[in-house]
From TrEMBL, chain A:
This is Cytochrome bo(3) ubiquinol oxidase subunit 3. The chain crosses the membrane at residues 27-51, 71-90, 102-119, 152-174, 186-207. It comes from the Bacteria. It is a multi-pass membrane protein. It is found in: Cell membrane. GO terms for molecular function: cytochrome-c oxidase activity. InterPro entries: Cyt_c/ubiquinol_Oxase_su3 (IPR024791), Cyt_c_oxidase-like_su3 (IPR000298), Cyt_c_oxidase_su3-like_sf (IPR035973), Cyt_c_oxidase_su3_a-hlx (IPR013833). The lineage of its organism: Bacteria, Pseudomonadati, Pseudomonadota, Alphaproteobacteria, Hyphomicrobiales.
Automatic annotation (TrEMBL), chain B:
Keywords: Cell membrane, Copper, Electron transport, Heme, Iron, Membrane, Metal-binding, Respiratory chain, Transmembrane, Transmembrane helix, Transport. The chain crosses the membrane at residues 29-51, 72-95, 115-139, 151-175, 202-226, 238-268, 288-311, 323-345, 357-374, 395-415, 427-453, 465-487, 507-526. It is a multi-pass membrane protein. GO terms for molecular function: cytochrome bo3 ubiquinol oxidase activity; cytochrome-c oxidase activity; heme binding; metal ion binding. This is Cytochrome o ubiquinol oxidase subunit 1. InterPro entries: Cyt_c_oxase-like_su1_dom, Cyt_c_oxase-like_su1_sf, Cyt_C_Oxase_1, Cyt_c_Oxase_su1_BS. It comes from the Bacteria. GO terms for biological process: aerobic respiration; electron transport coupled proton transport; respiratory electron transport chain. Its main location: membrane. It comes from Kaistia soli DSM 19436. Gene3D superfamilies: Cytochrome c oxidase-like, subunit I domain. Residues 53-572 form the Cytochrome oxidase subunit I profile domain. One of its GO terms (cellular component) is plasma membrane.
From TrEMBL, chain C:
Coiled coil: none annotated. Residues 283-306 are annotated as: Disordered. Keywords: Cell membrane, Electron transport, Membrane, Transmembrane, Transmembrane helix, Transport. Residues 120-232 form the Cytochrome oxidase subunit II copper A binding domain. It comes from Kaistia soli DSM 19436. This is Cytochrome o ubiquinol oxidase subunit 2.
Length: 210, 709, 306
């Protein structure tokens, strides 16, 4: 099979690093499958939220009373921008193999990611204090915190992973393993965008509109 | 001194022995006895390992290994150990129900509740799952001509997570009590309000560990099958066992997530006061039922499909014939896998949804019966035109065809909402799923052990004892479970520790007799393994092909070398080894050998398993320092591993060549045996293909068959 | 009921042929109403249809084993693996059968929908599942019972169910199948008894230590006897008020059925409202002071020792 026949979704190393591209075949496919099963988990959480946000409000507040659309919109921007920055990091890795620029882009990504998580924690804080909307209040809030919390946990572990990758870039440079790991981290990071878009739409927009 | 900070909620009374001292009764003595056996068993293993100086080999060659063959064997050993516990629990429940007609028997209601919960949980998550996973681990890479799975370390981690869950359940024998919520753990009964204490937490964390392990396994095997097949091995040339492995893996990828989500939600309800499944505050247990069975129904196909694969291999091999309707078996398997996601609601027809919804799911359930029926008749037709040998695995297969089809009939009955309304939650249901799982999955795995044991260890299992165990298992199953159908129709509910209707007595007595036979069968199987190990010289079949096999795994030595294939095979048909033997091209020396890269052993997986187990134990008992420390350590191991270089070792071509040429020389020096001598000491693992037997004179001696130069 | 005659024969023949002479009170094998009778006859229809795929296996397998055993008479054809005719047969027959079974299922399921009333003016009984007993409320008659369901013969009955505790599964096998009773929700079961007598009803969903003995008596009586029973019950001095209900919430096993001459109106709705959103009834928790109610209260140890 020629290299071009083995292209996989996302940034490919074909052309710049044939050996790395060869090795990417199996691990990237595996990671796509992992993402798929992770998405099934999110699908289940979405479904639970869909049921709970209608039937599980009980005596607690409803979606429209507790959500802050402005904050959610800013969070969306932060996360999308961080994904954008990660794209540049990966392009720098592929074409320039320049530690400095890759690390710089990763730093931008990381800062945006930290800001996202920080804003989300602030949202929780506001909800808990201003609206007394803690997860113990109702099934709807339990489902809301679990869905967004699982996403936030994913973003946080992505940040830890990013920090480790920064160290590995510094220590190992761009060897095959580091490249493949960065490519997988990128896929993971972009998937979290997709999930967040779902959350922003179904949880926040629909919630406030209802 | 704040003991709670150190030991969480563990107190003196948490230990099972305290119950026997404070409240001496037969029920408590049995509980303490089980605890004692668990402790003594662990102690005995420690002493044995120390006396025999096996600690180092155990660690160096097994626990740290990432070789799919060793991982597979460890999975199966785990399954057998857990089976021993759970089958005894099953027999205890039978004895209790027999003794409790119009009185309360010898077990307390609470003890009985724990027994049916651990029995079900263990049998599904820590017997059936590790058994099929172990088997797929061992066999699938060999059949597709691969040197290992795609992610060997991940594979070892899956194993260790499963073992961690199994250990957690074993610990519940000694410290604290287990859940009484059954293997399905329906809330709100399992919520903190109705089930305070640690029992349900044991269930949650043991199952969660197992389910994460299974998700990773599914991912790993699917990638392996898609990416690691040897040259020429197209999907439609794969042995059927590989097809069923693929379908099971896909099911694992999709089906385990709902279970993980459900257990996490139940845990949040219990630990943090969330309201997913509680009574009131917007909680709704119907959501749990949906999530659980969204996993639970595919789960039964996760279990049965690999067994279907085993049956396909067994029936073709012991009929010395091609499998009938390969393509239709593949499509039938795929149909089953897809449909298995469309029927989960039939587990709760009784929840009050509209008749239309019930009818749709009922019909979907019947539709699954179509591909299953096709498979059963494909196996029957495989025997047509064959030369059937009644070996132990084949006896299990024949028994499977007859009993499984009856289980299918009761399954179709249960698919009718109207009938399900009557027999749901009764012993009829219990009889039905045991009817599918015992002759289908469990006996399938037993047949697989008989079939592939010589491949894994280089010697056959004693055939006489194998047949003896079959003749206990098969009638034992019939006796133990067919009366339950009738009892269920008479209205006997499941999970019931005492009865008031004396008419149940004779049927319960029959079932008890069956349980005793099953226990005898298991004892005979253990004896068979012990006897076979002792007589391994006489039973040896190191040349790798004791059954006149058809797929690639039989073309290599038994046990296979670390690298499986000296040179990756090239395949041009569905029965590569069979065709090669027939054409006389088997056992040829390759033109050239190359260096082989294999992963080094690593302590990563056992350490992750250890910390995961400690983490779960801490969660069960609210020992928060342990939770934090073990969680950090678990991820520290992962991160440390990511910095490790030099994780592969090179086996030089010369080593591979020496080993392989020695094997080939031994094969050439050994005359092949016909199937008449299959069970004699003459069978060293070189077969004269049945299809050549009785042909030209020179071939019938077997001496020259397949020797190419 | 026309089909009952023919199919009922088949239905009775299937189990009876295997285990002659056994029939049980508290089982749908001895139906006391059209629903259970329909269920057993449907059982017979499906079993009979399934014989189409089962019998060939039981006939063919021994023949094949005999003929194609090693040393048998069958011709050895090691490479035979496919035949279009057989293929059509093994796919076609199950498909046709699934079609037939599916049709039967569809008809039976819609016809015997537990939510479908079995006639005009059904008697309404509200059922509250408790640990480990059932409370029956007769809103029209104004009486209530614990662990006793009195029903008039040949009058449709609508049972509305909910739970005051964990999920339970309510069944009177001789009349109709199960339906779950869940807190904060209402399910429904329509039954009709066509002969008088005592039947067994019970919970089939494990709900703790008292589960094994959680059964109740269903007394089917003539319409006149039922009217008389209502009058006798009304004369009972015991009444079920909100406080009395709180006592019932405590897990206990009832040894003798209890009759209440009257009960707090709307109790059933209040039980549901205590769990479901929007209705500020607050949570119903056990813990009220024990009254002199005639049921035993067990703690776990006592129950475990029984």
């Amino acid at each position: 099979m020629s290299l071009s026949e083995r292209l996989h979704p996302g940034i490919n190393l074909a052309g710049t690093d044939p050996e790395g591209h060869e090795a990417a075949e199996e691990v990237l496919f595996g990671f796509w499958i992992f993402l798929m099963s992770d998405l099934v988990l999110f699908a289940v959480l979405f479904a639970t939220y869909a049921a709970m946000s209608v039937q599980g409000i009980a005596e607690g507040p409803g979606p429209a009373e507790v959500f802050d659309l402005t904050a959610a919109f800013l969070e969306t921007l932060l996360l999308l921008l961080s994904s954008f920055a990660f794209g540049f990091a990966l392009l720098a890795m592929k074409y320039r193999e320049n530690r400095r620029s890759v690390l710089a882009w990763l730093l931008v990504t990381g800062i945006l990611g930290v800001a996202f998580v920080g804003m989300e924690l602030h949202d929780y804080y506001v909800m808990a204090t201003a609206h007394e909307a803690t997860p113990q209040v109702s099934g709807f809030l339990s489902a809301y915190y679990l869905l967004t919390g699982t996403h936030a946990l994913h973003v946080s572990s992505g940040l830890v992973w990013m920090a480790i990758m920064a160290i590995q870039i510094a220590v190992f440079g761009f060897d095959k393993r580091v490249k493949l790991r960065l490519m997988r981290l990128a896929l993971f990071w972009h998937m979290l965008d997709v999930v967040w878009i779902g959350i922003f739409t179904f949880v926040y927009l629909f919630g406030v509109a209802s | 001194m704040n003991w709670e900070l150190i030991f969480g909620q563990i107190t003196w009374n948490s230990f099972v022995f305290a119950g026997a001292i404070e409240n001496p009764s037969l029920s408590e003595f049995i509980a303490s006895g089980a605890g004692t056996v668990a402790v003594l068993g662990a102690l005995a293993s420690v002493i044995l390992l120390t006396v025999k100086r096996w600690w180092v080999p155990l660690w160096r060659d097994w626990l740290t290994s990432v070789d799919h063959k060793k991982v597979g064997i460890m999975y199966i050993v785990t399954a057998l150990v857990m089976f021993a516990r759970a089958v005894i629990e099953g027999a205890l429940m039978r004895a209790q129900q027999l003794s409790a007609v119009d009185n309360s028997g010898f077990l307390s209601a609470d003890h009985f509740g724990q027994l049916f919960s651990t029995h079900g949980t263990i049998m599904i998550f820590f017997v059936a799952m590790p058994f099929i996973t172990g088997l797929m681990n061992y066999v699938m890479p060999l059949q597709i001509g691969a040197r290992d799975v795609s992610f060997p370390l991940l594979n070892a981690i899956s194993l260790m997570l499963t073992i961690a869950g199994a250990i957690l359940i074993m610990v519940s024998l000694v410290i604290g009590q287990f859940s009484t919520g059954g293997w399905t753990a329906y809330p709100p009964f399992t919520g903190i309000h109705f089930s305070p204490g640690q029992g349900v937490d044991y269930w949650i964390w043991a199952v969660s560990l197992g389910s994460i392990g299974s998700t990773l396994t599914g991912l790993n095997f699917a990638v392996t099958i898609y990416k690691k097949r040897c040259p020429g091995m197209t999907l439609f040339r794969m042995p059927l066992f590989c097809w069923t492995t693929l379908c099971t893996s896909i099911l694992m990828i999709f089906a385990m997530a709902p279970l993980t989500a459900a257990t996490i939600m139940l845990a949040l309800d219990r630990y943090a006061g969330f309201h997913f499944f509680t009574n009131g505050a917007g909680g709704n247990m119907m959501n749990y039922a949906n999530l659980f069975w969204l996993f639970g129904h595919p789960e039964v196909y996760i279990l049965i499909l690999p067994a279907f694969g085993v049956w396909s291999e067994v029936v073709a091999t012991f009929s010395s014939k091609r499998i009938y309707g390969y393509t239709s078996l593949v499509y039938a398997t795929m149909c089953i896998a897809v449909l298995s996601f469309a029927v989960w609601l039939h587990h709760f027809f009784t929840m009050g949804q509209s008749a239309n919804v019930n009818a749709v799911f009922g019909i979907a359930t019947m539709v699954i019966g179509v591909p299953t029926g096709v498979k059963v008749y494909d196996w029957l037709l495989t025997m047509v035109g064959g030369r059937i040998r009644f070996t132990t695995p084949m006896l299990f297969h024949i028994n499977f065809l007859l009993t499984f089809i009856l289980g299918g009939m009761t399954g179709v009955l249960l698919a009718n909402p109207g009938i399900d309304f009557q027999v749901h939650n009764t012993l009829f249901l219990v009889a039905h799923f045991h009817n599918m799982i015992i002759p289908g999955v469990l006996f399938g795995m037993f047949a697989a052990v008989q079939f592939w044991f010589p491949k894994a260890f280089g010697f056959r299992l004693h055939e006489g004892l194998g047949r003896a165990s079959f003749w206990c298992f098969a009638p034992g199953f019939l006796l133990a479970f067919f009366p339950l159908y009738w009892l269920g129709m008479m209205g006997a509910t499941r999970r019931t520790y005492m009865w008031t209707d004396p008419a149940y007595l004779p049927w319960l007595a029959l079932a008890m007799a069956g349980a005793v036979l099953i226990l005898t069968g298991f004892a005979l199987m253990v004896t068979q393994i012990v006897v076979s190990v002792r007589r391994r010289a006489e039973l040896a079949a190191p040349l790798g092909d004791p059954w006149d096999g058809r797929a690639l795994e039989w073309s290599i030595p038994s046990p296979p070398p670390d690298w499986n294939f000296a040179v990756l095979p090239e395949v041009s048909s569905r029965h590569p080894f069979y065709e090669a033997k027939k054409a006389g091209t088997a056992y040829r020396s390759p033109t050239a050998y190359e260096d082989i890269e294999v992963p080094r052993n690593t302590a990563t997986a056992p350490l992750i398993g250890l910390f995961a187990c400690a983490w779960a134990f801490g969660l069960v008992w609210h020992i928060w320092w342990l939770v934090v420390v073990s969680f950090v350590l678990m991820w520290a191991v992962v991160i440390a591993r990511s910095f490790a270089s030099d994780t592969e070792e090179i086996i030089p071509a010369a080593t591979v060549k020496a080993a392989n040429e020695a094997f080939l020389a031994a094969v050439r020096a050994t005359p092949g045996v016909t199937r008449d001598q299959e069970m004699t000491a003459a069978n060293r693992g070189r077969a004269v293909p049945e299809s050549l037997e009785g042909g030209a004179g020179v071939l019938s001696s077997g001496a020259t068959v397949g020797v190419s130069r | 009921m026309k089909s009952r005659g023919i199919v009922g024969l088949v239905a009775a023949a299937v189990p009876a042929a295997a285990w002659p002479g056994i029939a049980c009170a508290g089982s749908f094998l001895e139906p006391a109403g059209p629903i259970a009778a329909g269920q057993i006859s449907h059982f017979g229809v499906i079993s009979t249809l399934m014989l189409i795929v089962i019998v060939p296996m039981f006939v063919a397998l021994p023949i094949v084993l005999l003929r194609y055993r090693r040393g048998g008479k069958g011709t050895y054809r090691p490479d035979w693996e496919f035949n279009w005719g057989l293929e059509a047969l093994i796919w076609g027959v199950p498909v046709a059968l699934a079609f037939a079974l599916g049709t039967a299922l569809w008809k039976h399921t819609l016809q015997h929908d537990p939510y479908r009333p079995l006639g005009p003016e059904p008697l309404l009984v509200e059922v509250v599942a408790l640990d480990w007993k059932f409370l029956f409320l007769y809103p029209e008659q104004g009486v209530a019972t614990l662990d006793l369901l009195a029903l008039p013969e040949n009058r449709p009955v609508t049972l509305k169910l909910t739970s005051g505790t964990v999920m339970q599964s309510f069944i009177i096998p001789s009349l109709a199948g199960q339906i779950y009773a869940m807190a904060g929700m209402q399910t429904q079961l329509n039954v009709l008894a066509d002969k008088t007598g005592d039947l067994i009803g019970r919970n089939t969903q494990y709900n703790g230590l008292g589960f094994a003995t959680q059964s109740f008596k269903t007394s089917v009586m003539s319409q006149e006897a039922f009217a008389a029973w209502v009058q006798t019950t009304k004369a009972q001095t015991a009444a079920l008020d909100a406080a009395g209900y709180q006592t019932l919430l405590k897990p206990s096993v009832v040894s003798e059925p209890v009759l209440y001459g009257n009960f707090a109106p709307g109790l059933f709705d209040k039980v549901i409202a205590s769990f479901s959103p929007g209705m500020a009834q607050g949570h119903a928790h056990a813990g009220m002071s024990a009254s002199t109610s005639p049921h035993h209260e067990h703690d776990h140890m006592q129950e475990a020792g029984r």
